[in-house]
Structure formats: C-alpha cells, structure tokens
Amino acid sequence: MSNNDIMTTVGRLVSGHPMEMHAAMDDRTNTQKKFASGELQFNQSVGIAFPKNGTTHWNQTDWGQKIEAAAIAAWPRGEHGMRTFSWKVTDGDSTEPNKKMVTPVSREGYAGHWVLFASSCFATPCYNLGAYQPHQVIQNKDAIKRGDYVRLVFTTATNNSSDSPGMYINPVMLELSRAGQQIMSGNAPDAAAAFGGSAPVIPQGALVDTGVVTPTTVAPATTPQAAS
Question: Phi then psi for 13, rounded to 5 degrees?
Fold first, then answer.
C-alpha cells in the first residue's frame, strides 16, 4: 500500500461488483460517456456496507476520517460543508428516496450501516483472504457475489467540479474476506409476491397436456420381496 491508500474494515458488498464493467451513462443526456479520445467509457462500481456500531456519522470511522480530511484539504473554500457535496457515502437508514424513488433503508443490507461507494474505469484486482500474490488474483468473477464480506483499499481525490463538488472514491484492490448470504437484485421481480397469493385458473376448453401441466403422483417404491 502507498501512503495515499486507505483500507477499510470488513464490510458487506451490497451493490455492484468489482469485476463487472457497465456502460458509463451521462445522467443529463442519458447517453454513454466517452473519453477524450472518443472511445466509449465503461466502469464498475461497488457499494460496501459497514456497521454503524454506535457511530452517528460516517466521519467517525477510520476510513471516513481520511476521506473528510482529504476533502477539507481539497476544498479550502468550504465547499465540503455544502449539503449537496458528493461524498460517495450513504446513510443506510435514510428514508430519502433517490431518483428512482428507492430509499436506502429499503434495500437489503443497508439498514444500520454506512454504505461507501467506489468506482473505476478498470476492473478492481481481487484476492482471496491470505492469497495475495500477483498470480493469485481472482480470475472468475463468479467467485464474488453481492452479500460477501470484503475489505477495500481505495484512494480519494477531488472531482474538481464547480457544478457538483465532491470526492472520487477510486478502488485499488479488494479482498474477499468471507462468503456471505447472496443478495439478489433489488430490481428483480418477486415471483412469490406476484403469483403466490392466488391459484391459477385454467380457461375452459384449454388444451392441456396433463403429463406436463398437472403434477403427477408418484407411487412409493416397494421393497423387493426376498425369494422363498
């Protein structure tokens, strides 16, 4: 680690994936961002939830103190005190909805936590606990899932934006500390909620295949009789 690197405690991966790249979209134009070279931009992002453990503000955590100190140094005119300053940290107990009208507290794994978001134009090198050699970088993205417990090394820097001042949180590397219960996508349809409340009514005259549609009863296996 360099002097500028910040390492978190163990938190739970509740959003995104460190190895999955997605089109970087411009919220104002709803088009994919481009680099200065004209090449289309892709990025990946992660949201990691850390238990509050009695803290009343994320700046009371070790990693939070370092982000705040960097912001104070980068924005000496006091922009960091603005309500709209972009810290890339969310209060998991907040009931304030985002642009999609989803509240943090309603998302799995958020309540009772500070959620730190980090993003990059490159996939983040990931390692299993205790396996940190270059040749041991995790190659299969399916080895990591939302719900797992991880540690993140990141850097922070000003975004140099006069319109929307804030800080960048740039992931450097991630450790898969321990597998956790998988968090399914919050946007995935809930089949149980959709279908579980009522029984299906088959229309009269429907041409059904009783061997497929209607469950069949399997007779219990019989014990072979010993020859006398």
Answer: -75, 110
CA–CA gap between residue 28 and residue 31 (Å, rounded)? 8
pLDDT of residue 213: 46
SS3 assignment, position 62: helix
| CA triple 33-35-41, angle to 5 deg | 50
Helix (H) or strand (E) holding 113: strand 113-120
Residues with Cβ within 8 Å of residue 110, at least 6 apart in sequence = 14, 49, 90, 92, 93, 104
Which residue carries 């999955």 as its tokens? Answer: 20
* Predicted pLDDT at 187: 46
Higher pLDDT, 33 or 59: 59
pLDDT at 217: 47
High-pLDDT (> 70) share of the chain, %: 82
